[in-house]
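Input.
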Amino acid sequence: MTAEVKCWCQHCKKELPPSHTGPCPYCGKTGKDCKVTATAVVGIKASASATHKPKWSSKSLALFFGFLAIFLGVVIPGILMLLPFSPGVNYGILVGFLVVAGFIFWWQKYRILMFIRWVEGRFGGEKRF
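Output.
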């Protein structure tokens, strides 16, 4: 750190040495003003890191299709077996349900993605710091 001191007479504004005491040698009046300027160099060291996670990772897709397979393979046939209609009507109901479910998945894709991310973060092995 370096410091610089400059002094001058309060009345005639002539520069005086910092060690000067008594009346001004130029105007004869007393009083002086001083200014101290200090300069320092400060170093800052910082580091940052970030992890980008794609919108649909392979884990997210695997979980999504796993849930979808369980739902389509277990729940839907179980419900259709309970309906008292002919097989043709049951298959029509199945196709209609799949179309409606597909629309709901498309319409609510952000909420479904957030749910899958929550499940993945809760039970997955990846930890972020």
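The two ends are 38 Å apart (CA to CA).
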